[in-house]
Amino acid sequence: IHNVIFSSSDEASICVAHEIADLIKSKQAKNEVCVLGLATGSSPIRVYEELVRMHKEEGLSFSNVVSFNLDEYYPMEKNSIHSYHYFMHEHLFNHIDIPAENVNIPSGTVSTEELHQYCIDYDLKINDYGGLDFQLLGIGRTGHIGFNEPGSHYNSGTRSITLDHITRVDAAPSFLGIDNVPKKAITMGIGTVKKAKRIVLLGWGANKASILKETIEGEISSEVPATYLQEHHNTTFVINKEASEELT
Ligand code: F6R
User: Fold this and answer.
1) Which interval of the chain is the signal sequence (predicted)?
2) Nearest CA to ligand 1 atom 3
């Protein structure tokens, strides 16, 4: 793995957006689909903004893009303002030309009986497309990537999980209280993410500094699931100065 430290998250996000755009264009030139793994949360917002700008101002087309989002709360209605389905459409999909049928986001409305098979099928669908060409990640204070909380197996697939208390505390403000934060979620697995050909993890701000130190410099352990990325051959941590402050 390697880290790139930018003085601002803005500059860093634009750089990542350009890598994604270049990948999409190189796939277009070969008449291939580009399979993107996407994240929600505050970290990637500026990346999506830049991709939207490139679509509107530079004609970047997403017609050959197939996307798979990392996670969704469970249960969760698609049209809820708290859903990751809503987030992705607000920040990206409503503003670009990705075909609606190419968008995959774990559904927070599948029945508990269907959930297990649904998750297996999500991974199979990624495999059917030849795997993820690029996976964008953020990181939670627990060391989660997607919603792979501490204890997640390095080879885990897409599945339902119980959210860590710290994760629910961090989500509480936007839900107007922790009691409103779902206790469960569906997440791509560590194994799913690690099969991506390229991974970029974004980390901004001082509140990510200590978990980034553990992730980048700590021992590989299920206690900090993001440490599994140390074993991935093509991962870059793109972080800003504040987030890098505890690195040696
Ligand atoms: C979101 C996701 C999470 C977030 C992480 C950081 O799809 O998978 O792992 O990336 O919780 O969230 P922010 O970016 O809001 O700090």
Assistant:
1) none
2) 146
Cα 130 to chain center, whole Å? 18
Residue 11 is among the residues annotated as catalytic for this protein: no
Cβ atoms within 10 Å, residue 64: 18
Q: At 26, which CATH number?
A: 3.40.50.1360
Q: 42 CB less than 6 Å from ligand 1?
A: yes
Q: Whose CA is nearest to atom 4 of ligand 1?
A: 138
DSSP letter at 68 equals E
CA nearest to 147, candidates 205, 192, 100? 192
Tell me the pTM.
Answer: 0.98
The distance of Cα 178 from the centroid of its chain, to the nearest Å, equals: 23
What is the 41 CA–ligand 1 centroid distance (Å)?
5
pLDDT tens, 60-116? 999 999 999 999 999 999 999 999 999 999 999 999 999 999 999 999 999 999 999
| Structural domain range at position 76 | 2-244
Number of structural domains (the chain) is 1
Whether this model's ipTM surpasses 0.90 comes out as: yes
> What is the atom index within ligand 1 of the atom nearest the CA of 187?
8
Atom of ligand 1 nearest to the CA of 84: 7
